Structures are given as structure tokens and as C-alpha cells.
Amino acid sequence: MTDPPGRLHAAIAELALFNDDPAAGGITREVYTPTYAGALERVQTWMRDAGLELRVDAIGNLFGRWAGTEPGAPVVLTGSHVDTTLNAGAYDGVLGVLGAIEAVHLLRDRGFTPRRSIELVAWAGEEPRFGTGCVGSRAAAGELSRADLDRLVDRNGISMAAALAAAGLNPDRLAAARIDAPTVHALVELHIEQGIVLETHGEPIGVVTAIAAPHDFRLTFTGAATHAGATPMGLRRDALVGAAEAIVAIERIARASSSGTTVGTVGVVHARPGAINVVPGTVELDVDVRDSDAAAREAVVAAIVDAARKIADARDMEVAVHEIVEDVPVACDPAVVAAASEACAELGLTPRLMTSGAYHDAMIMGRRLPVGMIFVPSRGGVSHHPDEYTAPEELDRGVAVLAGTLARLAG
Ligand code: HGY
Ligand code: MN
Ligand code: MN
């Protein structure tokens, strides 16, 4: 069966319909929600259509296996995620799962039979619904404890354990999700770049050599909640003004990083009590600092915390620092980079070797086993946004390179 024109594109468009917030624009499909469950069901039918043997693990990771001729050989893992962040695009993660299914069709149509089994995966919770991303691959890597499932909570205070139970999964079976690294030969993830490098250089394909990692933390400024009308300006300890000064400092410090590649973001601000006529007494800033250069990143984090403390002192406030996640940047495996680069060459393509500014499940698994990534361009570098877009021929090119890479790794 050949690829009916646009089978992949139609599937991406159909998955985009599983959306909890269409009115606000973009796609909101958070892990362990009923909408996410519906999307995963649909992915399972596509995996079955590709002749894959399905299983869902204890944390909700979905696997589809193409059995190889050597069933005992370490497998080749490929996939990504189909959960989204808020009001997001249609391609982030989805391409890595649906594109892997398409690559299986391509390889089958060519008469390819894998020696190593090829295991497709839709990792649960790559996006940080619970404040920390990649919860499915962290469980597979053995990096999540049962206590973490109670500690990790979403913006509505729902714990990951409660969300798992509501989705019909048993948080007490977490350990069963662990994947032993020696059972995996390599992992390769197809993904949109989510940045503008490929487009800027007019290059159609990227092969990732390193994946930047986040160090995320919460700054809580505590001043004094007082009457907005009756409190003279000179008597205030306005936590939101202090936090605002810190946000500007975070941008300045990240821009001045020694590596030139550190990024710093405050994506979440909670001002309390949150009434127009009350001077904010407490403000929480969730800070995301990333780099592929860990030392440069940690120097930025230290400088941010120091600046926050100085701002609080100068304004007679308190500031507390609460760690959210500190991941280690990962180098992609030379053999996987080579396999992807050869697959490009076979198609007459010269890949751009590049760093991923976004994190991925490959970053988590790459601490324990050989990983690599293949990038296709994001129009205008836009991602985590309704306007996220990659052209059909660019999607197809990524799938063709993934198929060639899988053939090399599993052949
Ligand atoms: O935030 C990230 O880098 C990923 O897209 N979740
Ligand atoms: Mn994302
Ligand atoms: Mn992603």
C-alpha cells in the first residue's frame, strides 16, 4: 500500500481536532485528560493500521512494536508526544509520532524487514502540565518516584497521581514503566525545530548534535498586601513591582550570558490577592533558564537568584527560591547522528548539524542510551502557538530521513 497522498497530513489535521480550548485559538490537549485519551485512541488505530503490536505502560506511554527478525536484540525506539502545552500548534510532538507511523509504512512498502524490533512510542506528558515536562520518559528512565507523583501538581492543584488515577492508570505501578537501557540499541526522534535557524539559512533538514536543558525554579516575592487607595506610595512593599524589576533583570542577565546561547523566560506570574484595589502582597514567578552549556546556564541562574535577593533587600521584602527541575544538557550519540546524516545523503540532502533549544524526551532518555533527533523547519520559528506550521513537503522529507535512519539502526 503506497502512501495515499497526504495520509500523514490528514492525520495531523485530524489529531488537531482533539482540543480542549478551540475558542482561545490553537490546541490545548494536556496529558491524562479525556481529550488526550481520545487522541491516543486514534493514534492506536493508526498504529494498528501500520501492523504494530500495541501496549500502554503504567504511566500511559503508548508503544507500537514492529517485531524484528532478532526478537532478543536491543530495539530501536522512535517517537515523541501527542500532548500539547496551552493554545499550541498542531506539529510539536505529533510529527514525531505520526511521522514514525508513516516511516513504518514507507519501509514496509519498500519490503524492508527490521532485524532489531522497531518500537514506536507516544510518551505521556512531554509538556509540563505538572510544572515539569517529560514525565512519561522520566518514568521510563526510572527518574520519577512515587512521591513525585503526589508532589507534581498542575495549575489547578491536581496532582499527577490523581490525574493518572482519573485516567484509569495506577500510580502505584509507576516502577513497571521503567525501560532497562541495555534493551534499547538507540532512540531517534523526528521533531519540528521550533526555532528559526533552518529557515534563516534556507536549509531543509537538521540533525541534532546536542539538546539544551532547563533549570526551572520559582521565585516568590513577599511584600505587604495593603489598600490600593489609602496606602501612600512611600509606605508600600508592592511584591509585583519587585517581581517586575526581577523579570527585567532576568532578561538582562540571560542576554549577557558567557555562552551567548542561554535563554531566560518568566512564563508564569501569580500575583495575590489579585484584586484591582489591593497592593499585591505575594508574587510567584516561574523562571525557565536553558542552555546546552550547563556551566553558562548555572552562572545565569546564580546571577538571577543574587539579583532577586538584592531587589528584595532594597524593597524590604522577602524572596524565596523553590527548585522545579534541573536537567542536564545531552549530547546526541555520534552513531545516531551518522545514521541520520547518511539517510540525508541518500536523499541528496546535506543536514545542518545543530543544537536543540527546546527540550525533548530524547533529552531524558539520552542520559541512559544513544539518542539522536531529526529536525524539519518551523515557519517563522513559531511554535507553542496556533500559527505553528511546517509545509507538507517538509514533513514528508523529515519522514523520509527518519525511515532511512531507522533502516540503518534496525537493519
Ligand atoms: O518546552 C519545551 O522545550 C518543549 O517543547 N516542551
Ligand atoms: Mn513543546
Ligand atoms: Mn515537543
Summarize this structure briefly.
By secondary structure, the chain is an alpha/beta fold.
Structure explained in plain terms:
Helix 8 (239-255) runs antiparallel to helix 9 (294-314). The model has no long low-confidence stretch (mean pLDDT 97). The chain folds into 2 domains: 7-212 and 329-410, 3-Layer(aba) Sandwich (Aminopeptidase), CATH 3.40.630; 214-326, 2-Layer Sandwich (Alpha-Beta Plaits), CATH 3.30.70. It has helices at residues 7-15, 34-49, 94-109, 135-140, 146-151, 160-166, 197-200, 239-255, 294-314, 334-346, 361-365, 392-410, and strands at residues 53-56, 62-66, 75-81, 118-123, 184-192, 206-211, 213-222, 226-227, 263-272, 278-279, 282-291, 318-326, 330-331, 352-356, 371-376. With 411 residues, the chain is α/β, with parallel strands linked by helices. The structure holds (2S)-amino(hydroxy)ethanoic acid and manganese (II) ion (2 copies). The site of (2S)-amino(hydroxy)ethanoic acid has 6 residues, from loops. One manganese (II) ion (MN) binds next to loops.
Helical segment count: 12
Second CATH tier, the architecture of the largest domain: 3-Layer(aba) Sandwich
CATH H-level superfamily of the largest domain: Zn peptidases
Using DSSP, what is the number of strands?
A: 15
Proportion of strand residues: 15-25%
Q: State the shape.
A: globular
Q: Can you list the ligands bound to this structure?
A: (2S)-amino(hydroxy)ethanoic acid, manganese (II) ion
Q: Please give the largest β-sheet.
A: 9 strands, mixed
- Spans of at least 5 consecutive residues with low confidence: none
Distance between the termini: 21 Å
- Mean pLDDT across residues: 97
